[in-house]
Amino acid sequence: MKAFVMEAGQYKLKDMPEPTAQAGDVVVKIRDAGINRRDLGLLKRYGDNPEALIIGSDGAGVVESLGEGVTDFEIGDEVIINPGLRWEHNSDAPPEGFDILGMPDHGTFAEKIAISAQQLEKKPVHLSWEEAGGLALPALTGYRALFTKGQLKKGDTLFIPGAGSGVATFLIQFAKNAGATVIVTSRSEEKLAQAKEIGADIAISTDSDWVKELEGQTIDLVIDSVGGATFNRSLEVLKKGGRIVIFGATTADNVDFNLRSFFYGQYQLFGSTMGSREELRDMIQQIEQHDTHPVIDRVFSLDEAREAFDYLAEGKQFGKVVLRASE
Ligand SMILES: NC(=O)c1ccc[n+]([C@@H]2O[C@H](COP(=O)([O-])OP(=O)(O)OC[C@H]3O[C@@H](n4cnc5c(N)ncnc54)[C@H](OP(=O)(O)O)[C@@H]3O)[C@@H](O)[C@H]2O)c1
Questions:
Q1: Contact 183, 200 (CB under 8 A)
Q2: pTM of this structure
Q3: Test site for ligand 1: of 37, 185, 250, most ligand atoms within 8 A of the Cβ
Q4: Which residues contact 167 (CB under 8 A, 6 or more apart)?
Q5: Nearest CA to ligand 1 atom 36
Q6: Are 187 and 168 in contact (CB under 8 A)?
Q7: Where are the alpha helices (DSSP H) in 12-81?
Q8: Residue 157 Cβ < 6 Å to ligand 1
Q9: Nearest CA to ligand 1 atom 22
Q10: What is the pLDDT of residues 203-254, one digit of tens each?
Q11: Nearest CA to ligand 1 atom 28
Q12: Which residues contact 15 (CB under 8 A, 6 or more apart)?
């Protein structure tokens, strides 16, 4: 079968053996698979991996065969894949043994995948294939950051630097569903307009003076995944005693910040990553209730995976970039 792999320092399309379902596993024919920034960075982190590894964490498709003992699914069921492996129940941090699908296990950028039935959820019927394929990792990450860690509630004001990121588009939609006011920034005029279209109340340029632009606003919660380029600026606009949640660092992992200002301001800083199966199910229930549709920027075929990676690396997208693995 056709797959997009990481092998000996390169990403490439490769013919890989068809997977078979071992006991407890299901083979899923992948329809669509969302690309995440993590996929772009794997080569740098694990590039010398000599064996071909199918990458990709997100995907949705149709159950094709069942391993021994699988009773929760039937052939033909439409499913989405939970990319968070071995994290079932809510907890302050992922349990020992937690991994993200697509390294070290074979991932979703292929025509088929064999995966534990425990990792599957029924595809929400209101979603198209590309919406379902691009959902799980970014939406789950956003959900945990916003509600479990950020404790967002109705009436709060949320600030998100970098409106166009895959996760940020979910943050905007989820926060609006919850009755919050949402303020975003972007370097692009077009993305600012798109953010407003999906519900952002205020959208300002990343390059503007945030303190001046946001005069009179009380920001209860910041969710910042841009990292070094924005962290200190985000703290500057957060209300005293407010919460800031970090789940990514697109621009830089390291920042200098003033501890004295931080403790005088009594700010609360939280780290977050992905989420548990319980949170995934809560998130799915919420998007069903609110008829929320993931924002899809562009769909590429699996053959065009390299081009899709280059496109995502350029950062021009608003929402998710998805690979179509089969029709
Ligand atoms: N821990 C986890 O479980 C987890 C899960 C998912 C993602 N992540 C991480 O979270 C981050 C976001 O991921 P993503 O895929 O949603 O988005 P992404 O594609 O990494 O988006 C990056 C955003 O950052 C902004 N940005 C990039 N460079 C910037 C700069 N120099 N100055 C200001 N803003 C800049 C862009 O905003 P504009 O283009 O709008 O200006 C863009 O919207 C990534 O670092 C990813 O690795 C972590």
A1: yes
A2: 0.97
A3: 250
A4: 138, 139, 141, 142, 145, 225, 247, 248
A5: 162
A6: no
A7: 37-46
A8: no
A9: 165
A10: 999 999 999 999 999 999 999 999 999 999 999 999 999 999 999 999 999 9
A11: 251
A12: 1, 2, 3
